[in-house]
Write a structure and sequence with these properties.
The protein is an alpha/beta fold and 228 residues long. It is built from seven helices and seven strands, in the order E-E-H-H-E-E-H-E-H-H-E-H-E-H. It starts with 16 loop residues before the first strand and ends in a 14-residue tail after the last helix. It comes from Clonostachys chloroleuca.
Length: 228
């Protein structure tokens, strides 16, 4: 006799988020990014040794030795299998200089004027932009009303994204992430990420972030009170 199907569902492994901790020691209760209970996924940590408060909180450019401490910690986290890396101080934005690529509906019409409204000066920072083919599936879907054939749209957008990342790599400006401008692109974000190997952001991820600030709730896993 065959056994009845099990009701248990095998847990899908979740890759951990990597956290570079500063060399500053103080209570860090749930809600602080250092604390594992803050997050709904696994967290692993490495310390950037010698990164004191006075080193981090500064109005001047960080020196190479300081940056190297974070690079070393980041490499250790990558070796341990983290999916991405964050740190714990907004002042460290001084050390960020990644290039973000944009996948858009029409790259002939999306350009410097749009980016300038977001505070991005394209005369000082190159933002690679690539659009869906003018006679392709996505453009016909919008302008002619269809047809909606998922695998054709996916193949088209994955192809554009791959060409963009390859072009950037060949020019020496490897991109750190992709922004999908068109609101019809989120259903293909997973396939694009798998094909390119870079983080992908779109109107869905933006909406989730936006809503989380509009309806802020203290997660139950943080507990009712802060640790004294």
């Amino acid at each position: 006799m065959a056994e009845p199907p099990s009701n248990s569902i095998e847990a899908i492994p979740v890759a951990p988020l990597g956290f570079i901790a500063t060399d500053i020691h103080f209570p860090r209760p749930p809600g602080d990014p250092f604390n594992e209970q803050t997050w709904p996924f696994p967290l692993i940590r490495e310390q950037a040794r010698g990164s004191t408060e006075s080193d981090i909180v500064t109005g001047t450019k960080y020196d190479d030795a300081f940056i190297e401490r974070f690079v070393e910690a980041g490499k250790k986290l990558a070796d341990r299998g983290c999916i991405g890396i964050i740190t714990s101080c907004g002042f460290l934005a001084m050390a960020q200089n990644e290039t973000i690529g944009i996948l858009t509906y029409d790259d002939a019409r999306l350009g410097p004027l749009h980016l300038s409204q977001l505070g991005i000066d394209t005369t000082k920072r190159v933002i690679p932009i690539r659009g869906a083919p003018a006679n392709g599936h996505l453009r016909r879907l919008i302008t002619e009303g269809g047809p909606y054939i998922h695998h054709d749209l996916e193949d088209e957008l994955v192809g554009v994204a791959k060409r963009l990342t390859v072009e950037c790599e060949e020019s020496g400006s490897e991109i750190a992430g992709l922004l999908l401008e068109c609101t019809q692109m989120p259903p293909f974000a997973e396939a694009i990420q798998k094909a390119t190997g870079v983080p992908v952001y779109d109107v869905y991820t933006m909406g989730m972030w936006f809503y989380s600030g509009l309806a802020t709730r203290r997660p139950q896993r943080w507990g009712d009170k802060l640790v004294q």
